[in-house]
Amino acid sequence: MLHEMEKIEVRLAEECKQVFTELQTDLADLNSDFSPATIPYHSFDEYALKVLFPAQDDYPVLQDPADLATYEESLVVFEKLIKQEEFLLTLVETLDKQRQVSKRDKSNIAALIIVSLMDDMSYITSILKQLLSKLIEDTVNNDARRMKLLLRRSEHITEKYLSNWLTFNLHSFLVESAGQPLYVLYRAIKQQIEKGPVDYITGNARYALHEKNLLSRITDFNKLNVMVYLEDDPYLKDTPYTPLKSCQVSLLSCDTISQAKAKIIDAMYRTVPDSLKPTPNDVDVEWKNGSSSSLRLVDMLHNTQDGWKQLDTLGSLNIDDQAVFQCIPRQSPPPFMSQSGGAPSCNSLLREIENGRVWHLEREVDNESDGKGMTGVKTVPEVFLTRLSATKIPLQKFVDDLFNVIFTPNEGITALPPCVKYLMDFLDSEAARLQINDPEVLHTWKNNALPLRYWISIIKSPDVVFDVRKNNNIDSCLSVIAQTFIDATYYEDMTIDKSSQSSRLLYCKEIPTYKQHVREFYGEITTCRPVTEAEVDAAFTKNKTETTLRRRSALYELFNYGCRFSEELREALQDKGYRDLANQFSYIADVGLDNSDSAAFDPVKV
Length: 606
What we know:
The chain is of the alpha/beta class and 606 residues long. It has helices spanning 2-23, 44-52, 72-82, 85-97, 103-116, 121-142, 157-169, 171-194, 257-268, 348-355, 385-407, 409-412, 418-433, 439-449, 451-460, 472-489, 502-505, 511-527, 533-543, 551-564, 566-575, 579-594, and strands at residues 217-218, 223-230, 246-252, 283-288, 294-297, 300-303, 309-311, 324-329, 337-338, 358-359, 377-378.
């Protein structure tokens, strides 16, 4: 036992010394490597669809329903109806009250309204103003205790409608200003994580911003700079992209073959959107070991103690620094094999992992075992919290850059999107109208309306904006950064002590400065000249491109919801004195229901 303790102490001393050394090293300046022309932005339609209809592949507004023509006359009338404020506001209010309408339905309804009316942003904005005004007044009058929760949740169609309005109107600002620092931050996080070991199976890494993603063991590794040549590329035909024919790639001796392939692909296809890149399963890598001999590298297992199998790494295969690789398109399925046999199959590794008792750098049972027979030494989680700082410090510049673009008034106020000024002024006017004198309430409304409702979602999901793949490690880092931005918007100072989450402790020094930036941002906005609905519409129209979103299909699906609750909507219109609108809707709803089966008018499934 004494020997084991001495061994752990020695390893911890080496670990702390290495952390200190790494803190002196920063990432290269990634800003110089990218320009707006090389950042893989999604098209506006792709971006909009991912926000409006999340977690969907079959978008309802990309194709016309088979029976659309049957309801064309009804849709002509319905379109005229929703372009009358009295009808649309009543429709939203009625659907919002129905218990059968789920949160997903409400999200979908808000999206369908925006797409149906996207040719008239001025009208969309006018409707938003009235919906928000009613929601704010109802909250203040009926449940004053919930005033600070206003716009934080998505319980009403109005809240999702606001999100969608911001999604449309902030797209040009995202592409022209905020997109580049967000993309650079994403790339910096990815690069920093890949500087250290990452477990192929658990996904835990040496570098992370949250302790749950840290490797539980100290892992020895060496950096390997290898030269890679690309023999042929069949993947980018009929695209404007060209991969590098050769380049030097940084690998680690603890990388598996699949991890090495992924890094090679990223390097060779550096400027190519991720959706067009080959995957590790699409390519083979050959190790040129000598002038004429070569070895095809594949993922293999070797037996360790207790019936466990460990993945081979570049180090276990004795691949040295300055090795030469050739990357070629895969001609046949990958021959995965283990020492205990196993037929070649591209799914063999996956099946072995699913069956358990396969490990790379740490075992699933590390926290319960004594670590005997392992190549790394297990240690208590608290010791590895220093690794969080080793990740945070090199990334800090990129976090600051993004924060400044979003919140710093001195740098960004001249390019302030009209929709932001319009929204902030509206909230100011509502607070004055309802005699809300508590500055914390107004500050919180603005936080909930803009940073929390839009920017936090974008920061946590860069794959909505860019054609990139996001793994769990990157997702966790972005979530910690997003939480830091949320903390920076709070009106009151937060109490941070030793019991606070480590991810929050990481940024305790930056948060006071960030909070001051946010206050100055809101203060500066109030001094800018007012913005009209027409100016919001003009700014959107100026940057609008041809769209594949089908307004008619969105109108059809929205009509679908109206018909489902036609009786309730008719009654609501009549109660408000809109008898003519009620009669017009009754006619088209009755015709629609008479000419359809029940399945045709089920609400679109999200």
